[in-house]
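Example record for the data management plan.
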Amino acid sequence: MDEFMPMTSHIRKIAFLGDYLPRKCGIATFTCDVLSAVAAEHPGIKCFAVPVNDLEGGYEYPKEVQFEIEEQDLSSYQRAADFLNISNADIVCVQHEFGIYGGPAGSHLLALLRELKMPVVTTLHTVLRDPNADQRRVMQELIARSTRLVVMVERGRRMLEEIYQAPSAKIDLIPHGIPDIPFVDPNYYKDQFGVEGRTVLLTFGLLSPNKGIEHVLNALPPILAEFPDVVYIVLGATHPNEVREQGEAYRLGLERLAKKNKIEKNVIFYNRFVELDELKEFIGAADIYITPYLNEAQITSGTLAYTFGAGKAVVSTPYWHATELLADERGVLVPFSDAGAIAREVIGLLRDETRRTAMRKNAYKLGREMIWSNTARLYRRSFELARLEGAVLSRKSFATKTLDQAPRELPAFRLDHLARMTDSTGIFQHAIFTVPNFSLGYCTDDNARAFILAVLLDELDEEPERARTLATTYAAFLHHAFDPKTKRFHNHLSFDRRWLDESGSEDCHARALWALGLGVGRSPHRSFQIMAGQLFAQALPAVMEFTSPRAWAFSLLGIHEYLRRLSGDRAVSQVRETLMARLMGLTTELPTRTGLGLKKNWLTTTPVSPRP
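Corresponding structural encoding:
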């Protein structure tokens, strides 16, 4: 147990917000890795992801992704905030990088953070030394809205304090996590890449012009003059943003440069995004890793962290992360854009195997502190501190999303009989003329209908105080009717408050879902939104086993209402697609089922087998 870790934890659910695999970018890889590491190290905590989409239609995400944000759609961020609040997450862990969120300098993210009701731990992948006005404004509010801040190098901590006046007490230094790769002889991996017997130089990561790979290509001729068996592997697809804007111009330019330098036989381009298991093998095969980046202000580099932690000899330009990580004989620094210096240092390391091996061991030793299991424990400590400190900001309540409707030429609403039919438990099933019939008790069906009515009356501003009071009673009935063991709703409740059934019908369950979905999507009151959202999430999975078409239809009505507010919820959207397909599939079966056409009550009486 970490000495700073509380003995008991109340954290049960953590949301990770940022890009996510299979999107091809460093932040997506990091978010996926840190979520997986925390989930593996702390199995009692449920971890889920809320990624940002830069493409229309998003990506084929894995199951842990529960909600999606559209990068340039401000309302999508507000809906995501509603979802996170309703999901009852204890902590939101934000991955921040300029360029992945919409709005000026990524300011759309702030609209989400302003609405959150739980502590926020923000990992800063970039800390700018000279921000423009928009970037400074976003950073300062991001710092203020975050309960704790995570940086990966000491320089990041100093810059936050000196440039942005961030309180030092809220900053946590957590190194970039790395996979636990064994310290092995590179020759063990080389044969599978066809480079056995050769010396391998490696650079990997998404390609773009700021990577400086052309300087390594210019350094190769003098290296090859002394070590002709050297092969330089450039591993990674071109960055998707670069492809969209410039196509493959940068990669093609590198290939032309290799031909110009007459080193085609000594350069291998692997133009693809590799998964972790394959990446480990590429790293394992490398004798020297080179990061020739051109930008000093790069405060984190996942590619450097991975290879350094694997115990590789590294030659790098002096960007901020490399300067700190490669100090004390853990690597070699060369000036920016200096092919001659790269050649000189690579040749020096290849000549001196003793020095190269010592450098590898120094790096590998420090790297043991960076493996993902250790990083996960440090994040857990940051999450616990954030929970203990609480949400120190005064955050707004849900923004009320009203519907402006034209006046109707209808009689005034009168709720007298509805109030007479409702006691502290719920609405009665039946009446004798205008007198409630106690003997027949209550049912979930009618309380679901009554809750729908009360929420709609509140939305229309018709006796809103009375409507809200009634809605509270009906919501309490629905909550009591749900059995958390069976994940189904009871239906019939006697006047003396005894359930008369083990489980209600499929239609009863689905009508309750309709009511709950409407509570999420239309009620302006946070208590209804959260209660209804949490109960909706527990009750929805049962629908996938239902066989009643009418129950499917009621469920779809509830899903439609739910998605009015939380349109990025992937799990709910997937259920919607399945139920829609089942209902549409019935249209081709009706004539054969009835002979002449649809029987009058077929949909209410005839179950059918569910479709996948």
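Summary line stored alongside the record: Residues 1-8, 391-409, 592-612 have pLDDT under 50 and may be disordered.
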